[in-house]
Amino acid sequence: MSSHIAEIEDLRRRLEEERRGREQEKVRADRNEHERTQEKERADREKRERAQEKERADRNERERAQEKERADRNERERAQEKERADRNERERAQEKERADREERGRMRLEADQSPTAFLVYLQHVKEKLLSTFSVEPDPTKTSSGSVTNVHGKYYPQQLRKWADFNKNHNRMFNQFTEVFSNDPLFPPKTDVQGVSRDLSPGSRKDEQDIRPFVRSSMEKPAERLVQAYLRQIKDTRTANFFFQNNAYSLSSKHITDLTDADAIENQDAVPPSKKRSVERDVRGVPDRWGIRGLPSGDELTVFVGEYKAAHKLPSSAFDRVFSSTGESLFFDTLKRLSLPFVDTNKEERVVAQVLCQTFDYMINAGLLYGYVTSGQALVFLMLEKSDPQILYYHVSAVPDCVDDSLLNDFDVRYGPVSQLSTFVMLSLESAPQSPQWIENAKSQLYQWPILPENLILRSRSLRPETAPSSSSDEELEDKKDGSYRPGRQPRNQQPHSQSTDRTETQRRQSSKTQHRSQEPTLSYCTQACLVGLSQGHPLDQFCPNFSIHQRGTSSHNHLISKEKLCILVNNQLARNLDENCKCLDTMGMFGAVGVLFKITLTNYGYTFVAKGVQAVDEKAILNEANVYAHLWKLQGVTIPVHLGNIKLLQTYPLVSTATVTSMMLMSWAGNSLHSEDYKSDVDIEAQKQQSIAELSAAGLVHYDLRRANMGWNQERQRVMVFDFDQSSIQPSLSGRKRVGDGGASSGLAMKRTRVDRDNADVVFDEY
């Protein structure tokens, strides 16, 4: 039992031990497990720590990456911002540049379109207009023929340099500069460019080609300068100045003396391979006229201008001739032409002929100034009133437009526009000379190719004993091109109704005769006065010249007849063209046929008007006289009083170079209706219709009824009609019969009066 107990105890012990062992084992296992757990926890912790470290490292890396990315992003943003700022700056700079460019363009365009200052305008003209000129170098493409035909034209006896022109020009240019200052008074650059575009871009082949160039690049700019100067200084003597194609007067007309055979011969003489310049229908007329406008509205012609083809008259020709010849250019040229051998100095002859032509215009127009231009050359001419035998010249330099360096170096002060402006200002100080001055000047001059007798004798002594019987090739060529070569014995001429074969003694004696110039100052005679003179009625006591008509007597009758008046007027004009006679062309009183004069018969006081015509229009005033004769009952009421027609013993030269050969004397009708010289309560249309109806009832067909041919007569207080040179008379219903007592004076030697069977006109046989 004890064994059992021992066994039990042993078993119990063993079990206890086993239990303790198990417990220990379990403790150990638990400890191990715990250790393992701890180890695992430690490992896990370490792992976690490593993971955390890695995560931390990764996070740090990410943070660094993010920081780097953030830094990069910031850098990129800064770069982008900088780029954006730079782009904005560039855009702002570009915008500013664009705005500045647009502003500069706008300002430049505004400046180009804005009026310019004096010197700037001259520079634009030089660069844009003068630079367009070029001369055709191919002679086969240029016009042929002579430069000018001066046969029968007056030429100066001496040629001298215009010594003080440059001094006057410098003074005038300084005045321009001072007066204009920098004021924008002249056309903008765009206007000048527009003119330049309109000019022909090709070379100039003939005289017609240089006209637009000269007018655009020289004359028009000079005209603007002078007009601006007159406005700025408020000139009280000259209101305006301008160039025009015609003189402010009756246009010059000539009766051609060429027969058809002559025309054909001249035409055949022209080589067909050459282009010929177009000739003007009216011969002997300057190409250009300078017109001075007065404050009163009157207009005066102050100079003439002449154009010549540039290829025929380069500026070098003038330079060579003027530098090599003396004062006797014209005499020397004519002496050579009078010799039987060939004149080899063609250049001198051409220059002499060109100057002769313009000089002749100046003399016949009574003008002291003129110029000649070929585009390349611009030559100013001047006469002294006291000695018209001397012609003064000044050559204006025109830049070589082909050579840009010469054009750029050219001073506008001495350019053609500046010098032409000075020339104009000098001419404005002058006035057309009187008709008697013209006649006196002509009496001192010779006409091409006539030489003074002493020079003729001298040139004859140079001739060889035997001369060739036939013309040389040079002479024939000259004849072909239209210029004049005198034969061995020049035929005498009588142009302008004056003999050219006077002796020098006769010419000098004629020039010594002095006449006083006296314009008519009396008021016009009344219609009643001149009706009385025409129809044999007593004097009109209301005529402002009543007492002068009486000539110190108490007679109330006219002391002379209208026929006697015509004779006395003709003799008075033959004695002195300036005596109590004034041409009214400066007041615009001229038309296509006639020009009006105011005339006072010296010592008698009869003051009236005369319609002057040229030889080609004498038949027109014959017809007009017939109309007046038919309408004699209406004279002094509806129409002026016709006093008679006269054929002038001494022709009357006009500034247009026209020559009045006949006059129709008549009463002053009154100012043209254009002047509105009537009271406001006058029904002018009714007055017009009344006068027209009266004339129509008398059978008149006027053909030119307009306000310019009607005047308001203050004395009669009604409209008077005039200018009947185109009119006709219709047959009366009561039959064809004489309705007037005639009206022509003894000056137009009338043989008889008859009635035309076709239109019942009273006409005069030709004298």
Short description:
The protein is of the alpha+beta class and 767 residues long. α5 packs across α11.
What would your notes on this structure say?
The chain is α+β, with helices and mostly antiparallel strands and 767 residues long. Helix content is 44%, strand content 14%. A seven-stranded mixed sheet has the order 3-10-9-8-7-6-4, with helices on both faces. Strands 12-13-14-16-15 form a five-stranded antiparallel sheet. Helix 2 (118-129) packs parallel to helix 4 (189-198) and helix 5 packs across helix 11 (416-428). It starts with a helix and ends with a strand. The radius of gyration is 51 Å and the shape is elongated. The protein folds into three domains: 1-113; 118-135 and 148-254 and 283-512, no CATH class; 527-764, Transferase(Phosphotransferase), domain 1.
How do the strands of the widest beta sheet line up side by side? 3-10-9-8-7-6-4
Percent of residues in beta strands? Answer: 5-15%
Kindly give the count of domains: 3
> Which structural class matches the secondary elements?
alpha+beta
Shape: elongated
InterPro entries: Kinase-like_dom_sf, TTC14
Region (Disordered): 1-106, 461-519, 731-751
Organism: Ajellomyces dermatitidis (strain ATCC 18188 / CBS 674.68) (Blastomyces dermatitidis)
Protein name: Metalloprotease m41 ftsh
Name the features.
20 helices, 767 residues, 5-stranded antiparallel beta sheet, alpha+beta, 7-stranded mixed beta sheet, 44% helix, single chain, elongated, Transferase(Phosphotransferase), domain 1, 23 strands, disordered C terminus, 3 domains
